[in-house]
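Reagents: none. Just compute today. AhpD family alkylhydroperoxidase.
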Amino acid sequence: MKTFLLTSALLLGMSGFAVAQEVPKFFSETYPEHALQSALEARSALRSEEAALDAKTRELIGIAVAAQIPCSYCSYFHTQSAKAEGASDAEIREAVAVAAQTRHWSTVLNGMQYDLEAFKREYDEAMDASN
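Predicted 3D structure written out:
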């Protein structure tokens, strides 16, 4: 029961649990024991009250990154977490589509070795013109 509660707390983005024997197996059996405490503390810090991003936004970013890696574990984890934080199916689809579009243009620009400084100038000029 404790493992279920801790896993649920992690999936919901909650922190404040003690790193001990009760850590979910997907953490404790996959990460070096000597580094687990600090890894979980870093993870909790990004989910603390001081975090600049709200929980739903963090999970939508997680879904987008997971789709690009690709990682089935991360996709499942962040999708379930995003839903728990109130993300709609439309928001999840859009996060994945934005990730795909970003990957598309990254592939084109990098593959064609488009000049980065020229890109920055063009972008900045376009932004200045729109303001």
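The two ends are 56 Å apart (CA to CA).
Action item: order primers for follow-up constructs.
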